[in-house]
Amino acid sequence: MTAELVRGQNHPLSQARLEIRVSAGTPIVAGATLSDESGRIHGVEWVAHPGAPTLPGLEVSRQAAADHRLAVDLDAVAAAVHRVSILLAVPTGVGGPVTFGSLAAPFVAVTGLDGTEVASYTITGLDAESAVVALELYRRQGAWKVRAVGQGYAGGLADLLTDQGLPQAHQLATHINEAVVQGLARSVPAPPPRTADGDRSRQAAASTLGQDQSGSPYGVHGAQGAAGPYTASPSPAAQTPGTSETGAAYPTGSTPADPSAITQPTTPAAPTAGGPIDYSHPRRRNTAPPPPPTAPPAQPGQPGQPAQPVAGDATGWSMEERLYNQVWGMFEDLARTTAAYRSAVDFADTRMERELDEVLSDPRSRIGGQGDAAREKARAKHTQLVDQARQALDRDLAQLTAEADVVEPALPPAYARWDSPVWHAYRVPMEMPMAVRLGDLHVSESDRLRIPMLIRLPLERGLWIDSGRTGSSDGSFADSHELRRLAMESAVAHTARLLAVHPAGEFTVHVIDPAGSGAQALAPLVRTGVLATPPAVGAAGVADVLGRLTQRVDLVQMAVRGGAADSLPPGFDTSQQLLVVNDFPHGFDDRAVNQLRYLADEGPAVGVHLMMVADREDADGYGPLLDPLWRGLMRLTPLPDDHLADPWVGHAWTYEPALVPPGSQVLQRVLTEVATARRSWRG
Asked: Which of 18, 23, 33, 668 measures 20 to 30 Å from 131, CA to CA?
């Protein structure tokens, strides 16, 4: 059975030699880009287009056409290549339509060399865009998958190539258009219009399966966010593509199989793929596996087969970096498989509503049992579609859960939960880690599966522990006093972890607690002596701490801007600074509020970070003056709350804080170790 993909959904590829078949109804340009593990193109030699149609393992059409066949040999693609993006563009400067909004929705299919369709995607929702990334073939744990992307660009090929990191994007886009104009005389005529039945089938697919209620998984221009999973440095092998052999060009005049052939096959040359869709999560590897021998026996870890999870099986220079990238890969996988499930359920709901409306709109169906039978048939089909989507989701969740079960015990202290055995052998590190764990994330469809929430260090934004009522059911039943206590305990746990993951003497903590209401929660920090000074109380204490930190930011900024970093006063503390503020705005006058805003805005760039424990409603008296402050901080909650979104499909994720288990002495042991290391460092 063919996998009909929706935007953001992926599907495993069990064979290396493939065809990408494109049908658009009017001549368009088809091309492809090769990119490394971070999604970057290394040069124009990594782009296949009508002016340069062949690359190792890849061949595209030499001209614009209504139908295309692109040849792909994944075994021949260089090890440095991690993604093959299939691009479509409307020709410019040749008359006719200039955007995809004026065309029928393009249809793209991935097939075997025998015409067997593996996956298909109808690209809907395009309007003013004149170029689009239709599909991407990408490596995942040493195997290949295909993902439906559908990311359009109103600026055409130039914007698309710029977004993929090509410096010569505008020059290459111009060269491609010139090659297309020269080759249009050789393009094949558009195929005849489809039959009415075929049109209805395709329109149904375009109006339902192709809709993505969550929006584009790649943001405004298709680039992943800075916090995405592919931020690691490329491996030394990621330099230039290798050599390979590629077959002759495929003709451009053949029409791909109609999507309706999934249920009504029309030609023996394009049979549907057999067997259920397998959404297994293959192993991550740093390089591509060697080409398999002829007709190898199926083994775990090969494409299309369940993989045996391995901790640290991702790209990276160190085990820490590999684990970091692996966790982000799991996060992305869960986001996308959930998006596919929700889209499938939405499609099933829409289809059932449409079928029921058709039944009710026909007066004849309201008499006798005809209407009841039609309604029952629509509901049965809905149940079948939802069950199929759930089965695919459950397969993904089972594989991700198995991976999480082996990854979690292997995480270092910076990434581990407080109940992890790794803390029993804790020693103060010699270097700052890449990231720190601030909690766990999960979605409603996978309540058991938790993905660590890792934040890069040094912190780029301050943290706000919201002590007000959250949007969660737990928060709605907690009184304000209990929420403030939980928020302060959460802040202490985050502070202790930040202290624990930094080398001795390289992280200094200051606390402002004007009314002393956080004394009980702060006791572990005070008792072990890890604070720079005792918590500041009263208006005078607030003014003193804010004044010293503001002066520090000013001094460092002047030294950096003047190129005289070595001119700082003798004995100047060059460590990272964290200011923990409790009960804001109690004890703050207007001057202190402005200083706090200044620290939040300017501090992170010079190593001064802010952690606020506050209820925003308490500061309503300041009006919009503090809106930039709240927006500039990362909001965390002391109770589970679904206020965070991923950078791919924008799902709301439930955040759970990383708290110390009740009765555990791990916090005391870790802080004692930190205090001992600090004393040794000083003296």
From this structure: 18
- For 107-142, how does the pLDDT look when each residue is reduced to its tens digit (9 = 90+)? 999 998 877 889 999 998 888 899 999 999 999 888
* DSSP secondary structure string for all residues of 207-266: HTTT--TT--TT-SSSPPPTTSS--SPPPTT-SS-------PPPPS-PPPPPGGGGTS--
Q: Which residue has the tokens 């804790």?
A: 426
At 231, the amino acid letter reads T
Closest to 259 in 3D by CA, of 32, 105, 52: 105
Pairing verdict, β 608-614 and 131-140: unpaired
Distance CA 403, CA 141 (A): 12
Tokens of 271: 């049979």
Look-up: residue for tokens 């065809």? 19
Whole-number Å distance between alpha carbons of 512 and 545? 8
Q: Are 227 and 460 in contact (CB under 8 A)?
A: no
Q: Quick one: 3-245+259-278 is in which CATH superfamily?
A: sav2460 like domains (2.60.60.30)
As a whole number, mean pLDDT of residues 230-241 equals: 30
The domains of the chain are located at 3-245+259-278, 328-410, 433-682
360 contact partners, CB below 8 Å, separation of at least 6: 366, 371
Range list of β-strands (E), 17-169? 17-35, 47-48, 54-55, 58-59, 65-73, 83-89, 107-112, 117-122, 131-140, 143-153
The DSSP element (H or E) to which 654 belongs, if any, is strand 652-657
Q: Is the peptide bond before 585 cis (omega within 30 degrees of 0)?
A: yes
Query: How many CB atoms are located within 10 Å of the residue 412 CB?
Result: 18
pLDDT tens digits for range 668-681: 999 999 999 999 88
**By three-state DSSP, how is residue 482 classified?**
helix
Q: Assign a CATH topology to domain 433-682.
A: Rossmann fold (3.40.50)
Place of tokens 């192993």: 283
| 332 neighbors 355 (Cβ within 8 angstroms) | no
